[in-house]
Amino acid sequence: MIRVLLVDDQPLLRSGFRALLDLEDDIEVVAEASDGLEGLALARRHLPDIALIDIQMPVVDGIEATRRIAADPALAGVHVVILTNYGLDEYVFNALRAGAAGFLVKDILPEDFLHAVRVAARGDALLAPSITRKLINRYVAQPPATGKGLKELTNREREAVTLVARGLSNDQIADHMVISSLTAKTHVNRAMAKLHARDRAQLVILAYESGLVTPRA
């Protein structure tokens, strides 16, 4: 069962999301909050698999709520998905850097919304190749930073990270590297641990920020 926490200051939107999620046999909404501070308290109480968090809220906004969840070892299993009206903007970018697993635009189709919740629950990043390219563009004019643990990566781990940054799934990485999906997942997970990345979204950012992967021309 996928346990979901809804955090949004608009009751009507929360009700709509809840009604949609409650129809699914494998998803359960465990709590609702109207601001980030309340959401953080409920996350600690219920330990959901997914926290769907609006990016702009009173008291504590979505970026700060994400940052606090990512920094709390007790909430390491909580995957934050940002809800936004505007797509990839500066707020969403900052939320991804703070530790969000991905983001969803609020006018998303119901079937795509449900699919995204399940993808995030598996620990995969909600970053389509088009979104990854927008993230990449952020680093084109910036000098690479030093990635923690970068020198500790094996050649196969480096290759796996490169493919994650190109938007490939574990199955696609396995096909490309001619290995099993389990081995591909192991390479990715070990790279995440060495680079101190909370999830695949942060792994993508760190890959470009560290200079391990460079934008294609």
TrEMBL record:
Residues 3-121 form the Response regulatory domain. The keyword Membrane does not apply. The modification 4-aspartylphosphate is found at residue 54. GO terms for molecular function: DNA binding. Keywords: DNA-binding, Phosphoprotein, Transcription, Transcription regulation. One of its GO terms (biological process) is regulation of DNA-templated transcription. The keyword Membrane does not apply. Residues 146-211 form the HTH luxR-type domain. It comes from the Bacteria. PANTHER family: TRANSCRIPTIONAL REGULATORY PROTEIN NARL-RELATED, TWO-COMPONENT RESPONSE REGULATOR. This is DNA-binding response regulator, NarL/FixJ family, contains REC and HTH domains.
